[in-house]
Amino acid sequence: TGSDLRDQILRVARVAAAEKDRGFVAMFSDRVDIVSPDWAWEATGLLEFYGDAVGVGGKIQDKEGETLYGAGYFDFNGELGSPEIGLQFNAHGYFSNNLLQKTVDGVSPLHWTADAKFLCDVMDREKRAVAPDELAFIFALAVLDAGKRIICTPFIRAVVNGNDRYIRLLPLLGEKAID
């Protein structure tokens, strides 16, 4: 249920936030297969390099390589969408923008990494149960309010595989692992 998911996210985020260094939580759906072997290094590297960054995501593609979600931006109606939808992975776009790491308003809820302390703050404010899609949207709004940044990188990619189970959590704690 939604409240079980909220409790699970909070539990994992609090463990990661308790690290002496900055802890991160990666969230990814069972509906995608991660095809970037170094995604964790890319995500933590960007979060550590940019001190104001609290979230990192990449591109979600179908099995034919078409982008289903990439860099997300709020439109005038307050909805979060991606201009990269429908493009092939190697489509460079204007000024090769689709092949660059960039600051965005949001990333896909199917695969993203968040700063654990910031995620705890967001979850503590959101007392009700939320779906993973909604959590990514609420997180994006909180990032805007706090003046922080989310980064989208083409070096993190996942392919939709058709599974139904929605979200898995993985705390990124260096050498530690959570059971």
Can you give a write-up of this model?
By secondary structure, the chain is an alpha+beta fold. 29% of the residues lie in helices and 28% in strands. It has four helices and ten strands, in the order H-E-E-H-E-E-E-E-E-E-H-H-E-E. The protein has helices at 2-17, 39-49, 116-125, 132-146; strands spanning 24-29, 32-34, 53-61, 67-69, 73-74, 80-81, 102-104, 111-115, 149-160, 167-172. Strands 1, 2, 3, 4, 7, 8, 9 and 10 form an eight-stranded mixed sheet that branches. Strands 5-6 form a two-stranded antiparallel ribbon. A hairpin with a 5-residue loop joins strand 3 and strand 4. Helix 1 (2-17) runs antiparallel to helix 3. The model is unreliable at 164-179 (pLDDT under 50).
